[in-house]
């Protein structure tokens, strides 16, 4: 497995920032009431991750070790400001829906963690790809959790797609069932915790299943060798 394949595997599954490292849980649990909210925050976080990783990688040999963390935070804050202004200009209604959680990307431990653990020690290309994969892994969890909560709470999927993609995206809304009142436990914070727990449990179950498939053939070989040795 080459370096880029390893980064993809780590970011999307093995070391996913949301369901493995459990970083950035505050915005993840707060805004994932719909798929579009989760997708919007995920894309914003991914852009900040890529930009900050690239910048940190480029200046890694120029920043004194003693002040590297404040410098990294300033770099991240700069990219968050850029993303915030772009959303304010082009997706204002989504920006309003996400509220304080856009500027709070600055405090997302997943971003500062990747800047410190990987970008500050690797070339720009690898750092950018690491930011992309970590951001995609985070975004996928946001979208799945938002889809679960929106479907259970409102009976719809992709509601409010026009907030991100424009008025033409109104046609993307899928109504699975009609409801007079939303299922509150799904759209309130307790639903987010329950959904997150289910996703973590599902990942752990899949990991154990895959591990059993990988280990079992090796165990069979050991047993066969022991039988051959005993018979001889």
UniProtKB/TrEMBL annotation:
It is an enzyme of class 7 (translocase). Keywords: Cell inner membrane, Cell membrane, Electron transport, Membrane, Translocase, Transmembrane, Transmembrane helix, Transport. GO terms for biological process: electron transport chain. Its EC number is 7.-.-.-. One of its GO terms (cellular component) is plasma membrane. It comes from the Bacteria. It is found in: Cell inner membrane; Endomembrane system. It is a multi-pass membrane protein. The chain crosses the membrane at residues 20-50, 71-91, 97-115, 127-148, 183-202. The complex is composed of six subunits: RnfA, RnfB, RnfC, RnfD, RnfE and RnfG. Part of a membrane-bound complex that couples electron transfer with translocation of ions across the membrane. Belongs to the NqrDE/RnfAE family. This is Ion-translocating oxidoreductase complex subunit E.
């Amino acid at each position: 497995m080459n370096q880029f394949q390893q980064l993809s595997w780590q970011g999307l599954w093995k070391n996913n920032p949301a369901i493995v490292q459990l970083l950035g849980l505050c915005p993840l649990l707060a805004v994932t009431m719909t798929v579009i909210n989760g997708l919007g925050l995920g894309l914003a976080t991914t852009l900040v991750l890529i930009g900050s990783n690239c910048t940190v990688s480029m200046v890694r040999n120029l920043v004194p070790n003693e002040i590297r963390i404040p410098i990294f935070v300033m770099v991240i804050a700069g990219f968050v400001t850029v993303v915030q202004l772009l959303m304010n200009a082009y997706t204002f209604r989504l920006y309003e829906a996400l509220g304080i959680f856009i500027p709070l990307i600055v405090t997302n431990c997943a971003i500062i963690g990747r800047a410190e653990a990987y970008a500050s020690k690797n070339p720009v290309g690898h750092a950018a790809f690491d930011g992309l994969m970590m951001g995609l892994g985070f975004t996928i969890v946001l979208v799945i959790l938002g889809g679960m909560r929106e479907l259970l709470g409102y009976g719809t999927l992709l509601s409010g797609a026009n907030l991100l993609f424009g008025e033409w995206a109104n046609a993307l809304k899928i109504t699975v069932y009609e409801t007079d009142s939303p299922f509150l436990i799904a759209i309130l914070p307790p639903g987010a915790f329950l959904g997150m727990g289910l996703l973590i449990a599902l990942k752990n179950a899949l990991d154990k299943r895959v591990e059993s498939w990988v280990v079992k053939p090796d165990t069979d070989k050991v047993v066969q060798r022991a039988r051959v040795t005993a018979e001889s």
